[in-house]
Each structure stands twice: as C-alpha cells, then as structure tokens.
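Below is the record:
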Amino acid sequence: MASLLAYCKLTELADDPEVQTLIPVLYDAAVGYLANAGVSQPPPGTPRAAQYDLAVNYMVADSWDRRDMTGGTEQDNPAFRRLINQLKQTEGLSAES
C-alpha cells in the first residue's frame, strides 16, 4: 500500500477518509481488470511482478485522477497498452522464477 500511495502521490493523505476508502477499491478493480484480461498476478520478486505492479499502480492513479470527471474525451495511454499486451503475451512463461 505504501508504494501505491507513493506512486499516486498520496503519501501525505494516507489518513484521509477518501483515500482510505477509495484506494483499496480502485486497487481491487485494477487487479480484477487484469485478471479478466488474462493476466494473473506473477510471483513476487520477478521482473514480471514489477511490470504487473506498475500496471496496477497506473490504473489506480488514473482512476483516482478521473474520479470527479464527467464526460470529456477518453484517451488511451499507448505505453500502458504495450505493458498490458506484454503481460498478456508472457502469461504462463516459466521464466518468472
């Protein structure tokens, strides 16, 4: 949680009720999104785990930043899309250990 809050630049707000309520929900939603996209959580300490954490952190930060937005144009981040594609393509490879 500490690294997620640091990524989202919310470390100073860790005790804020909105942060305490929404960040765990956004985290669960990001993990669920990846699972439904065919990306399972890799073993800790592997390069793929770092990529997975980065993808989850990005999704949480993006959802946090957009929580009050209504309407507007939605833009896809190409770097994030490449990260997700790589995670999906390396799903189940034995090089994770």
